[in-house]
């Protein structure tokens, strides 16, 4: 709150106050008062039951989260010139980092309340949808920040005065808007596919070839886009060169995409190794069957050759046997009288 008042006082030296500055001051003051009131009520034993674990606490947390979002949007917008100047660089570090810390605390409070009081563990639900579901969900937020920051940078410097417009800067800011929009759509498509097409059995997501194919296509497309985005947006003449929302969100998006690509490659290699292990016994059995069939054919061929040789030599053997047998006397009979020669 003190950093906000200091930034507003500094800005009034160059321009009159506007509605955006008033909204930023009001949001941060509201967050401070709500947090102070909640701590005071829960510190006293007589009033702790009024707020702890009730719908009033949930409503207060939601209100704090909404005001924190408003404070981040107004204080870190280059057009307002409070925590970030017109070049998208951080001009008031305390205000910039404290507003983002306030937003993170509000999100943590909401997740903690849902887990402890309503039994909804968002982290476990995200984990049950697959290894990369959380990465895609975070990537949606990062791409939204890239798109919004690039649009703010474009509005701040690329106005109607065509003579003073830096053409390269404006083109790169427009590219940042396109990259953020495409990344947000691709990440949202992967999240939707994970939610609608993935079956959960025993608390784990079953593999799905269609979802894996969509993730591979989206991951490869986003990797190509953000390789150029990091080079163009965070270079010396780009809108993300100073430390600010665009700089951090671009690098965070690029890192998340690299993690997604690594996970996809590891899963492909694991599936490939499992497929080889499953097919190895079949190939061994098939080769053993081929060897046994060859042995059987060889045995049959030997038997056939042996029988053929026997058939070939059978007349000779028969002649030999007839020659070696003694010549029997010829006999004849007519009735019961035997005649011998």
Overview of the structural elements:
The chain has ten helices and four strands, in the order ααααααααββααββ. It has 341 residues and is mainly alpha-helical. The protein is flat and about 80 Å long. Helix content is 74%, strand content 4%. It has helices at residues 2-11, 19-43, 48-51, 55-75, 93-117, 122-128, 133-157, 167-197, 209-233, 245-324, and strands at residues 200-201, 204-205, 331-334, 337-340.
Shape call: flat
Give the count of helical stretches: 10
Q: Beta fraction of the residues?
A: under 5%
- Unreliable stretches (pLDDT < 50, length at least 5) are 298-341
Share of helical residues = over 70%
Tally of strands? 4
* Terminal-residue CA separation: 147 Å
What string, H for helix and E for strand, traces the elements in order? HHHHHHHHEEHHEE
SSE class: mainly alpha
Structural Rg: 42 Å
- How is the largest sheet built, in terms of strand order? 1-2
Mean pLDDT across every amino acid position: 77
**Assembly state:** single chain
Please describe the biggest sheet, giving its number of strands, its sense, and whether it closes into a barrel.
Answer: 2 strands, antiparallel
